TrEMBL record:
Residues 146-281 form the Dihydrodipicolinate reductase C-terminal domain. CDD domains: DHDPR_N (cd02274). This is 4-hydroxy-tetrahydrodipicolinate reductase. It comes from Paulinella micropora. The keyword rRNA processing does not apply. GO terms for biological process: diaminopimelate biosynthetic process; lysine biosynthetic process via diaminopimelate.
Amino acid sequence: MSYSNVEGSIPVVVAGALGAMGSQVIKTIIGASDCHLMGAIDIVEDKQGLDIGLELGLGHQGVTITNDLEGCLCQVSQVTRNSNHAVLIDFTHPQVVYKHTRTAIAYGIHPVIGTTGMTKENLLELIEFSRKAGVGGALIPNFSIGIILLQQAAAAAARFYDFVELTELHHNLKADAPSGTCIKTAELIEELDKSFNQPKIEEYESLLGCRGGRRESGIRIHSVRLPGLVAHQEVLFGSPGETYTLRHDTVDRSAYMPGLMLAVRKVRRLESLVYGLERLL
């Protein structure tokens, strides 16, 4: 770990630093003129105490890998308390994301969370906790600007269609299903407060689950997990005589970096936790 502060620069800690997304984030933060890396969190045992820059082929950075998230955040908060408040970027696992987010807020560090799979109840608890603490944060299911445009188009199209199904496709190392991005898309469509996909016949499944998961609104979501995929989403509307398809494909994780940096630069102005990149645009 490196706890030296840089005046006028945004201090950043990255959790999940050795993962596919985390390593891309580390590279982006190191290359950003208005940010500096202060901590790298990861649980890989044989990497503890090693320099994150050397591990990722980015040269010596003076920031060592640690699995002690709370200890790291505590030290960073002490160094930055009277100057620039720090930001935690989290790309870890659904099982720990609630704890990581709450811990960051408790130490006055602004969380920017890319990990999906958090329950609605936990999200509401964290929004209230952050509001009382006066510490802004952002839970972002997807940092792609393109996916935000898809979601807005889907919400607009839903006014004219009564039948819609969503399919999301990801790599087979993604733990949660459906994806947080796809859930967010469904939630935006459901803001119309109407029902979808009213059955025309009595359906049955000879293979359980083949029709996908059904939300209370009637929207069905299908999840695909395969090696070779990164992140993809399709929204398919249907009406008599036509279909309308919206699709977004992420082929490289660099697509997320502009949206991520937007969140890092704006999150410290917030006074509570917000949900969705569109809240920052």
